[in-house]
Design goal:
alpha+beta; globular; single chain; 3-stranded antiparallel beta sheet; 5-stranded mixed beta sheet
């Protein structure tokens, strides 16, 4: 299409102005705000916010163009730092220039260095740890008592990343510092996409002070671990040791301590917080679906037959996998992805100016009824091949060739797709199978649980559940 025929960005559908009540919704429940905009205006929406417009893109083909086909023409650094004036992603404030936040040549170099750490054979070597730690952690649950399932999944995934990333036990002082200091949706991260967020991030608010103190504590413990590993020759199989062993293919140079710190914290956060919330939402959704839960118990009893799960069981744990995939569809932990055109770009017939803020939300797209019939319904059968004579129209519906690839993208896509997506999926399915093998879980006050979305979508005020051991006779196939 010739440039003269392109539509100006101001002609993209959207509100002429955003009333204060809607700005408040954007600040407190941004996924719901974006979903409402898509429902009202369509797959391309221009939102005239005070700082600069946001271009909300919910068309799977356009998302694929931004993330994959034309990714080299879009940057990941959608914000300008109020401190340095340089462009950055919101998470740069915590993760520095790690794989999740870096851009351009640095990102390509780091991706090439770190990719071998996530080869399937390496992930398979961690499978036993996923199961062992799941069994050890849940063995302490009070039979017939109450637990906060969100907190329990945070502790479990923290134990897993403490073992696999840093080779330390959850009970160690190092892991305790990491657990208590990790800033979660706090301070500057909380304000990143809000109107006047740059100003709020600079104020000495309690949340900002907590964030800075937590980041300093994390830096202290991670740099001490790096020094210890270097002194020991970095011979271990944990991911921190592997980061220290990595060498640039062209120069043979290792990463310096700051880069190792940034990558280690990126792996820690990406391999911990997102998986914990995905698992918590899976248990929440199962608690409202007795039939889905019954099928889960039946599958783990048949496949595992009372023994611990192994990574070889994954192909047969199809329903368990479908439960987690459906939980990520309804409550994708990372609810939005942002990019900026490095120069003026055409997208779906619109002329996007350089440095525009283009937002693509898995939360929004995963609720589009064009691709997801009954989008709010928890239906793991979408992800399972239907049996002969199956009458449920949702059965196998996610597997159809007519569904665009980017109608579902909980791990992003393209060269910046989450490098640990297979790690996370393997960890979650083995943990879900292991827990369901031994425990029943019943929600307490389920109707009070609401999603809270900042950087990660979390269940608030928590996820209280009653847990009961499943009897031996009940688990016999």
């Amino acid at each position: 299409m010739a440039d003269t025929a392109l539509r100006a960005p101001e002609l993209m559908p959207g509100p002429q102005r955003i009333p204060f009540s809607a700005v408040r919704t954007l600040a407190t429940q941004p996924p719901r705000f974006f979903a409402a905009m898509r429902e009202r205006y369509g797959a391309f929406v221009r939102l005239p916010l005070p700082q600069r417009p946001i271009y909300l893109v919910s068309d799977p083909e356009a998302i694929q163009e931004v993330l994959v086909t034309a990714n080299r023409f879009y940057g990941n650094d959608i914000l300008r730092s109020t401190a340095t004036g340089k462009r950055q992603t919101p998470l740069t404030m915590l993760l520095g220039q790690g794989l999740l936040t870096s851009d351009g040549d640095l990102h390509r170099k780091q991706r090439r260095l770190i990719q071998p750490l996530f080869h399937k054979q390496r992930i398979a070597a961690y499978g036993d740890a996923f199961v062992e730690l799941s069994r050890e952690h849940t063995a302490r649950w009070p039979d017939g008592g109450e637990v906060d399932m969100l907190r329990e999944m945070v502790l479990l995934t923290m134990a897993i990343v403490a073992r696999t990333v840093f080779d330390v036990a959850l009970e160690s002082d190092v892991a305790e510092t990491i657990r208590t200091a990790m800033p979660r949706n706090d301070g500057p991260l909380r304000y990143a996409l809000m109107p006047a967020g740059g100003l709020l991030a600079r104020l000495p608010l309690p949340a900002n002070v907590r964030f800075l103190r937590g980041r300093a504590a994390l830096d202290s413990v991670v740099f001490k671990l790096i020094a210890r590993r270097r002194a020991d020759g970095a011979q271990g199989g944990d991911l921190l040791s592997l980061l220290l062993q990595a060498r640039d293919a062209d120069t043979g140079e290792p990463m310096d301590d700051r880069q190792v710190r940034d990558e280690a914290l990126t792996l820690l956060m990406a391999g911990h917080d997102t998986t914990a919330n995905g698992l918590a939402w899976a248990f929440h959704l199962l608690s409202g679906s007795p039939e889905a839960t019954r099928r889960l118990y039946a599958e783990v009893d048949e496949v595992l037959a009372g023994r611990p799960a192994t990574i070889d069981d994954l192909p047969r744990l199809r329903w368990t996998t479908a439960v987690f995939e459906e939980a990520l569809r309804i409550y994708p932990p990372v609810w939005t992805v942002g990019r900026r055109p490095l120069r003026e770009r055409e997208l779906a017939g619109y002329r996007l100016p350089a440095d525009a803020m283009v937002m693509m939300s898995p939360w929004v797209v995963h609720r589009d009824p064009r691709w997801w019939p009954q989008p709010e319904r928890f239906a793991p059968q979408r992800w399972v091949e239907p049996d002969a004579g199956e009458r449920d129209p949702l059965a196998g519906s996610a597997l159809g060739a007519d569904r665009p690839k980017f109608a579902y993208f909980p791990f992003g896509g393209g060269p910046r797709q989450c490098i640990g997506n297979v790690f996370a999926q393997t960890e979650a399915v083995l943990a879900l199978a292991t827990i369901s093998q031994s425990w029943r879980f019943t929600a307490i006050g389920r109707e009070q649980v609401r999603p809270q979305a900042r950087i990660i979508v979390r269940p608030r005020p928590g996820l209280p559940m009653r847990v009961e051991r499943r009897g031996r006779a009940e688990r016999t196939p």
